[in-house]
């Protein structure tokens, strides 16, 4: 059911440097039919979320950059009115609120699925898919929480965005500071200026901040750091612990399909082996089948009941279960020998001068594929000489089988990041 009076409506919301509350956001005049709202600014994204919480209806929320022409046609064929908000040419302020000036009518009409929220998957393994949720299924934090000011750097409409937004919208004392795309590289200054003490981001998001502005990052008074959306290795956890020795550092495994399924606070990569196949009412059940993480979750998307194969590789290492990457992209076949790209990546990021790495396979004569990598080095350290390609190859050769050693390592100057805050590692 819709939240007629969202409990967090009085919480502070900072968008583009302007402070307001949830109740101060623009009122929207959205179509009554199923609507896909493509927002050009965070303000309208939050306004759409509040509108849905109060009025219900059927909503898909995204940025225009994640919805290409083919997806727009797919949405119209599925009965959605496609509306854009926030750009000068399409978002029109009216006396009664904000009207959707730029709309595309659906190809046909169908009944509204009451209180339905649709999410688009990241599309990292193909075209994005629609996954159905409700505000209740996206609101996974329900117990009383300490007062926090949260940073939200995620693209509107993604699962991670909804996780932070529903926390602020439904829980008193959970303020929100939103990072617009043009503020992304300087977010530590924004966060420090507005008293952010809790932040959620992908490992790429955190690595980029550590690389670009470690001094500015350390000035943010963080008490809670959360990582998710990509494989979380020990190197990034340890580097964040060095900067924030007293903060709680958590990592979360979550997806549009299964919701928030794994939450770990002990500072270690992976989760305890004893969590496997443990059945607890109201909590996800975790399993590993043929090296793949399988989850049965109470927070799953519509129509996805029962055990769901996630497509992510899960490995039992000692007393931990490590989630290392996608099964369909993590394995590289070099002359018949199988190599884990994530394993090679972990060796590279363990180097004290490597801030980020991406490992892939490249077609090669005779072998079929060879291992190649891209890296970004940390800032200059007088005590540690910057490695060249040959030095990084030697580092890997000392720690990996010969066939797994990267044959080409390209050094980049900046950590690449997509709108989803991922770098497809």
TrEMBL record:
* Pfam families given in the database record: AMP-binding, AMP-binding_C
Superkingdom of this protein's organism: Bacteria
Q: Where are the transmembrane segments?
A: none
Q: Which residues are in the AMP-binding enzyme C-terminal domain?
A: 346-419
Q: Which residues form the AMP-dependent synthetase/ligase domain?
A: 119-288
Q: Which PANTHER family match?
A: 2-SUCCINYLBENZOATE--COA LIGASE, CHLOROPLASTIC_PEROXISOMAL (PTHR43201:SF32), ACYL-COA SYNTHETASE (PTHR43201)
Instruction: Name the chain's protein.
Output: Acyl-CoA synthetase
